[in-house]
């Protein structure tokens, strides 16, 4: 019945933000270990945990992930007993990326011996920006709040459209978005769209497709005007810990972005890598980075900072 409270579990951070943005925080009874926004969801029980050391270096994490996937193993573990105890009506997960969060296969495996009533599994797959809107709509349908979903999507689109319209006529710098440092990976999926919407020219990664690996020689050859570093799952302090891996590369100091002071460290974990409501903030951050002096949404120092040599300046 529409509007009737449901018992909801979210196993991906972006979905948790979607549920809360739809005004259904009170319905959330469980979350993943990565769900940390909004702060009010902190007390909720964690239903997942990684099978790897997430505190390792980029290379160590990448190596562990590849070994798990090579052996046909999941990167995450679902607490089946706790999930059964919560007894949800709706579980929101994803099947877009095996590395990003508990997958549809993980959830189905956890429910393989489930007895009792039907559980509605909503599996999100946001390959491009349009898919994010579709996913919000699907969550709203599952929660019986379609009108709230329509209103949320409309408000986010309007907010982002205002940024794009203000970028019209401004110079379009070339941009390289780095989604992983070691080995190097460019940002794909919705990121190329956000760069273009923010008045930039995206150099690597294709809209609607998974993030591609890249080489240092490719980055040097492209010599972008702007480099935005937004590793998946990393906040700014953690990015700074690994910047030496880039600054030690041959020719780093000769790059146009480095010489002009246009290398930026961002909080990819909280913004760019979460395909949910805060993609609007992500677009605003890009606008501030690409067009200094034209935009100031207040994200400087929290969502991004300019990298200077071996340090960053807020």
Question: Can you describe what's shown?
Answer:
With 314 residues, this protein is α/β, with parallel strands linked by helices. It contains 12 helices and 13 strands. The radius of gyration is 20 Å and the shape is globular. It starts with 7 loop residues before the first strand and ends with a strand.
Helices, by number, come to 12
Name the CATH architecture of the largest domain.
Answer: 3-Layer(aba) Sandwich
- Spatial gap, N to C terminus: 49 Å
Number of strands: 13
Contiguous runs where pLDDT drops below 50 for at least 5 residues: 68-73
- CATH topology title of the largest domain: Rossmann fold
- The CATH superfamily of the largest domain turns out to be Nitrogenase molybdenum iron protein domain
User: Shape, please?
Assistant: globular
Order of helices and strands: EHEEHEHEHEHHEEHEHEHHHEHEE
Count of domains: 2
Structural class by SSE content: alpha/beta
Q: How is the biggest beta sheet arranged?
A: 7 strands, mixed
Strand content: 15-25%
**Multimeric status of the protein:** single chain
